[in-house]
UniProtKB/TrEMBL annotation:
Signal peptide: 1-26
Annotated Peptidase M14 domain residues: 40-353
UniProt keyword Nucleus, yes or no: no
GO cellular component: extracellular space
Keywords, sorted A to Z: Membrane, Signal, Transmembrane, Transmembrane helix
Family: Belongs to the peptidase M14 family.
Positions in coiled-coil regions: none
Transmembrane segments annotated in the record for this chain: 425-447
Name of the protein described by the UniProt record: Peptidase M14 domain-containing protein
Organism: Coccomyxa viridis
Active site: 312
């Protein structure tokens, strides 16, 4: 066996300098870690109180159930509560079988505070939908279905905050926490491809639990969905901007006309509610990362919910990987208001588009007469809103690559300017130093963005 050569002291010094450059540059350029401003955001207790108040003020169309599920076999027992708000804009009915049924879930991950704020705004808007109906009136003139009639035939079940226990941990200061009160990601706890682990699996982010539906939060949602049989399941998250459909655990959307119609709905939603910025399509394909044991895949695959969706409503691509509040939530009042209003209204946009979907009951099949429901006239939507479709997939990664390429190119230019003027030792040292700096910058960019990307992908 030949003797291993370790190089001379110069090489060793070079390696040490390179290491120091990389380490030092990884610490720079970080903004202070953002904290939630509770002058803008509600606390968990304020949210729950406000939900009760809205429902109490509108008893003819809203009612709240306090659902409690527990795992008594664990020591100590683990219990979880969640509020489920039933909203029937046409007035309460006992039989929901002849209505369009939407099951909307917010606050599954504790650190995504903004989603809960959207739920609260949606409840406020449903309590007084006059502004949306006024807007819809203008749309109707452009050939859209009658939102008033659709609302009249719709029943919502809204969970404003699925993961109350996880939210408590976030409010205690663990701003990067997404899991529930005992360290399980409830969006990995569903029995579809459960427990499958990718090579970069990180238990601190996505521990799926000891077995499927071990977690009270997931078990409660399963019971609710099984009984309610929704046409639409919507799981609302943050960390990026995307409108996802199944599958999360495969890099493909399901085959068939229903899935294709769902994709078309999402692409229209992207134009109207996301300025064309949202990634659309299968979660697994669009983020380039597979998630196993998710609620959206289960709802579609096992409970046969035709429109099974995950909306990602906000993300800050430039946030440092430790700066979780900033990464998942707007930090200014202005942006907060914009995101909350936009994504609460997006439900009404969805309701405008639903009658065109083949899995949604037509006016004829619904319990009450729908005056102007039915198929969406071709081109009507485009007449209302002209927007350019622009799919941005993995924008953060692309931006970071672009930025690194620019740095490298600049270094290259710099590099090519030097050698003709100087030859020998000084020139050589300069070239090596510049190459090292370039390598350090690229390594720093790679390490930081890889970690950032990892956490952002955990938004689902
Ligand atoms: Zn999430």
């Amino acid at each position: 066996m030949p003797e291993t050569r370790h190089g001379g002291p110069l090489l060793q010094i070079y390696v040490i300098v390179l290491f120091l450059l990389t380490g030092a540059s990884a610490e720079d350029e970080q903004q202070p870690i953002a904290q939630p401003d509770f002058a803008i955001y509600h606390t968990k207790e304020q949210i729950l109180e406000e939900v009760d108040n809205i429902a109490k003020a509108n008893p003819h169309i809203m009612k709240v159930e306090n659902v409690e599920y527990g795992d008594e076999s664990s020591d100590p027992p683990y219990r979880a509560n969640m509020k489920v708000v039933t909203v029937e804009p046409g007035g309460h009915t006992r039989d929901h079988s002849r209505k369009i049924r939407l099951l909307l879930n917010y606050g599954e991950h504790g650190r995504e505070l903004i989603t809960v704020e959207v739920a609260l705004r949606l409840l406020q808007t449903l309590a007084d939908p006059s502004a949306e109906l006024e807007m819809a009136e203008r749309w109707r003139e452009a050939g859209m279905p009658d939102l008033r009639a659709t609302l009249h035939n719709t029943v919502f079940k809204i969970i404003p905050m699925e993961n109350e226990r996880g939210r408590e941990i976030v409010e205690e200061g663990a701003l990067c926490e997404r899991k529930n009160g005992r360290g399980v990601d409830t969006n990995r706890n569903w029995e579809v491809h459960w427990g499958f682990k990718e090579s970069d699996y990180d238990p601190s982010e996505e521990f799926p639990g000891e077995k499927p539906f071990s977690e009270p939060e997931a078990a409660a949602l399963l019971a609710l969905a099984t009984q309610f049989k929704p046409h639409v399941w919507m799981n609302v998250h943050s960390g990026m901007e995307a409108l996802f459909m199944p599958y999360d655990h495969l890099a493909a959307i399901p085959k068939g006309a229903t899935a294709q119609a769902t994709l078309e709905v999402l692409e229209k939603m992207n134009n109207i509610s996301c300025g064309g910025r949202c990634a659309t399509g299968s979660g697994g394909k669009s983020v380039g990362y597979l998630a196993h044991g998710t609620a959206t895949d289960y709802m579609y695959d096992r409970l046969k919910v035709p429109l099974s969706l995950t909306w990602e409503i906000y993300g800050d691509n430039d946030a440092h990987f430790n700066d979780c509040f900033r990464m998942f939530n707007p930090t200014t009042r202005e942006k907060f208001d914009e995101v909350v209003a936009n994504w609460a209204n997006a439900i009404f946009v969805l309701l405008e588009l639903l009658p065109a979907h083949p899995a949604i009951p037509t006016a004829r099949n619904l319990g009450r007469k729908v005056e102007a429901g039915g198929l969406l006239p071709r081109g009507a939507l485009e007449a209302v809103k002209e927007a350019k479709v622009e799919r941005r997939l993995g924008s953060a990664m692309h931006m970071s690559m672009h930025s690194n390429m620019t740095d490298s190119a600049r270094l290259g230019e710099h590099l090519f300017g030097i050698p003709q003027a100087r030859k020998g030792l000084i020139g050589g040292v300069c070239v090596v130093a510049i190459l090292s700096l370039g390598l350090a910058v690229m390594l720093k960019g790679y390490v930081t963005k890889k970690r950032t990307r990892r956490r952002r992908l955990q938004s689902v």
